[in-house]
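In this section we walk through a basic example: taking a raw amino acid sequence and producing a predicted 3D structure, encoded as discrete structure tokens. The instruction is simple. Fold the sequence below.
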Amino acid sequence: MSTSQRFGPDAVEQAEAVLVEHYPRLVRLAYLTLPDSLGRHPRVLLAHKAVQRALPRSGTPAGPAPAGGGADGPDRHLALVRSRVLRAALAPAGPAGTAWARIGRPPVPPFVWGLRLWPPAGGIDEAARTLSGAPAPVRAAFVLLRLDDLGEDETVRLLGGSGAADPAGAVRDALALPVAEDQLRALRRPEFDASVVSARPTDLLRRRRRARACWAALATMALTLTVLSVHGSRPGPDVRPAAGSAAAAALDPARLQRVSAEAWSDTARVDFTAWPARGGRTGDRGLLARALGTWAAPGTTPVATTPGTTAEPPAQPPQLLYAGELDGRAVVLMRDGDRVVRYGETTTGSGGRRTLDVTRTDDAGVTTAAALTLYRAADGASARYLLAPWIATAAARDLLRAGDTGHALDVAADGVTAPAAVPPAGGSCASWPVLELTSSTRIVEKHSFVLTDLGALSPVHLTYTPLPDGPAAVPARQPREATGPEARAAWARQACGLGELRGGAYRAVNVWDFAAAQLPDGAGRAVWSCTRASGWAGPGDVTVRLRLEAGTPQDVARARSTAACGRFGQHLLAGFRWRSPAGRWYLVAAGSRQVSAVTATGAVRAGAAGRTLAAPWPGPDGPVSLTGTLAGGGTVTALDGAGGGRD
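The resulting token sequence is shown next.
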């Protein structure tokens, strides 16, 4: 079949058979290629739309046959369908010149009445988070190469034919993505099927009210048209849009969603959706109207958003979490999907200053939905928090002092804490105040955890993963709460490093002690740790440090927007040029529990069995390549080069 020929009915039927057979793989390709800025609901719907519209119609021009495929073989039809899926996913706004393309926005996904859809937890969405931040062609190349097992040449042809600007570069970048073999095996498991989705109903009462409002609006329109038809063009009353429209409903204080006070104790979803409306001004229609109005049209009101969060107004009535007055300032908290918004206005003086803060809260749970910052003092030294209804007790302690038992923090009946000290925004780090909260036994077994304030609306959850023990075949330890003696000691040594994360969109920070070894020249025992700050969107920022028994921990390696040191980045290797107390230079390196040997090439040529390496650095500083051999097969490269010397 030449390039000038077109698909006939028989060929279309064969393409349909191929599409049905490979439907889950094609949806996976579309989902992981679509912009990661889209929410999960529209992304799932657009992925299915891209695949279902990829079926060619009779008369569609036929492209060149793929390598290794016959003129009419199944590979040809699969290549055509893949190309059409890729073209739709790489340019979701549509061809140049279309309305959506001109405004730079993706099209509205297919409408699903009364349901919200998303991939189940632990499924394809984990892969999407792993690849988040990579350009769309790179994500597409990763799926084609590593999950669909296409060759590099075929992948380049497919991407080029689908409109990618630099397909060869996308293939190179995809091959360089730090994704371990065990993660690839996990992504091929059935639960990572992108065509499997979870569904939940939207607010049923709100839908019923909207239906009634729509019928009322239609009745009003019909009556108006009847009057106009009877009276011709004579002047009539001023007919305005129906008050029940979606836009008006979203900004109507009377339509704010309110959860009952006891809903949290009888639900399987313990997050912000279970928060009741609290505070002394939940019935203040004027305050709520100003909060919603400012959200819809901020004007001169300063708006602060965390990275990756939009401040666009709600499309439906948000959930009211709090409305009250604190220290001369009125505060309103509202939830809209995966966002929480805080509105504030002064209630004393003549300034009347207003503020609006927006943060994302994707997949928040018992710990990450346990508190929100209501108000910070003008001097920045203290803050007051609104605690989740499932929090039984609260205490404040200093993270820099491992032995600090803390002191109880008073909490009012509506969940508002007394003023609590917050970590310093700069300068010296003499203390690092944190909250230690304990959950109620009405939802889970008694559970204590630690939160720290990094300047955002939502405090950050702190955890700790201890050193591995036993053979590599033993399952790796999971993060634990930062409440035990070992966790307190580890965090006390590097709490001040949390200041570097201020202003980011982080949900949790974990310190993982992944290796320990004796250093040369009697320097003593050192612990290698990886601190991972996980963002709400999935990827995280990591810092590998070497922690001696005395002194300040030394930074070894850093990486941003990575899966390293997380659930899908469990293999780790890092090293650097280190100066011993005797003044001699060494290359020191360490790997995680699956690393069985470490090899260095370049300025230092050395090797060692086991997870650690310490070799003299014979000459001047220079580049070094580190490779770790994994016990289960395969290799891992160093997170960062072993170049720069440190005293």
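Looking at the output, two observations stand out. Confidence is low (pLDDT under 50) at residues 64-74, 93-105, 226-244, 641-647. Residues 178 and 631 are 18 Å apart (CA to CA). In the next section we compare this with other chains.
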